[in-house]
């Protein structure tokens, strides 16, 4: 399956980092720091400084533990678990366990969906109307997508970049970008379809002031 290939790519990156490959380290930092920052922000009451510090700490701990990564799950999924442990420890130390934010994406059902993203097609990302919680949820979906899919969808539908501009970002052809976009939309749709089966996600959509789904 495609997600297995993605895990192999993650494992290859991890092994390169362990060997001291500077290019691999830079790729690791550039790819995962913003994802981890968004992931943590959604769980620490939008505390920017705390999220920044914890993202850095997660990266450091991940580097220290990189030899333990076996490619049995996505590297980002593995790092998110490290973040969860750091967040929990922080609030326990602060005696503020009640302040731990548990987003919808931390439910067992959603974690299973995010950690097992596959491919299919129908709904387009721009068809989703956002409120804050839904926006955070979809950001996590994009962050969990394999390859450059999350970046490509964000550039296309959030930043409104043209196919040509995306091709320049990826240093590839417009034809290749069209192919990547098609696969990314399929991957995104697979997740959305599964999320639509969850009652709490349906409730979240139904809270939209201008809901176009009914």
Question: What's the structural blueprint in terms of helices and strands?
Answer:
Blueprint: H1 2-18, H2 22-41, H3 48-64, H4 75-93, H5 108-115, H6 132-144, H7 149-158, H8 163-170, H9 174-195, H10 199-206
Helix pairs in contact: 1-2, 2-3, 2-4, 3-4, 6-7, 7-9, 8-9
Structure description:
- Helix 1 (2-18) crosses helix 2 (22-41) and helix 6 packs across helix 7.
- The protein has helices spanning 2-18, 22-41, 48-64, 75-93, 108-115, 132-144, 149-158, 163-170, 174-195, 199-206.
- The protein has two domains: 2-101, Rna Polymerase Sigma Factor, Chain: A; 106-206, no CATH class.
- The protein has 214 residues and is mostly helical.
- The longest helix is centred in the last third of the chain and has 22 residues, at 174-195.
Brief overview:
The protein has 214 residues and is mainly alpha-helical.
Q: What structural class do the secondary elements suggest?
A: mainly alpha
Helix content: 55-70%
Please indicate the percent range of residues in DSSP E strands (runs of 2 or more).
under 5%
The run of helices and strands is: HHHHHHHHHH
Count of discrete alpha- or pi-helical segments spanning 4 or more residues: 10
Mean pLDDT: 75
First-to-last CA distance: 34 Å
Total strands: 0
| Poorly predicted segments | 116-130, 209-214
Shape call = globular
């Amino acid at each position: 399956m495609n997600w297995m290939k993605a895990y192999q790519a993650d494992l290859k990156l991890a092994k390169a980092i362990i060997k001291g490959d500077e290019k691999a380290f830079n790729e690791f930092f550039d790819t995962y720091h913003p994802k981890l920052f968004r992931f943590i922000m959604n769980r620490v009451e939008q505390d920017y400084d705390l999220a920044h510090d914890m993202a850095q700490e997660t990266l450091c701990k991940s580097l220290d533990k990189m030899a333990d990564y076996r490619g049995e799950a996505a590297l980002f999924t593995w790092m998110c678990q490290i973040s969860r442990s750091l967040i929990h420890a922080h609030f326990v130390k602060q005696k503020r366990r009640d302040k731990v934010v548990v987003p919808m994406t931390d439910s067992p059902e959603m974690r299973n969906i995010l950690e097992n993203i596959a491919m299919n097609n129908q709904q387009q990302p721009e068809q989703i109307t956002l409120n804050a919680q839904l926006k955070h949820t979809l950001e996590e979906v994009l962050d969990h997508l394999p390859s450059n899919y999350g970046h490509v969808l964000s550039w296309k539908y959030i930043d409104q970049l043209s196919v040509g501009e995306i091709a320049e970002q990826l240093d590839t052809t417009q034809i290749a970008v069209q192919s990547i976009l098609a696969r990314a939309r399929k991957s995104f749709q697979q997740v959305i379809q599964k999320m639509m089966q969850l009652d709490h996600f349906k409730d979240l959509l139904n809270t939209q002031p201008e809901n176009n789904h009914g």
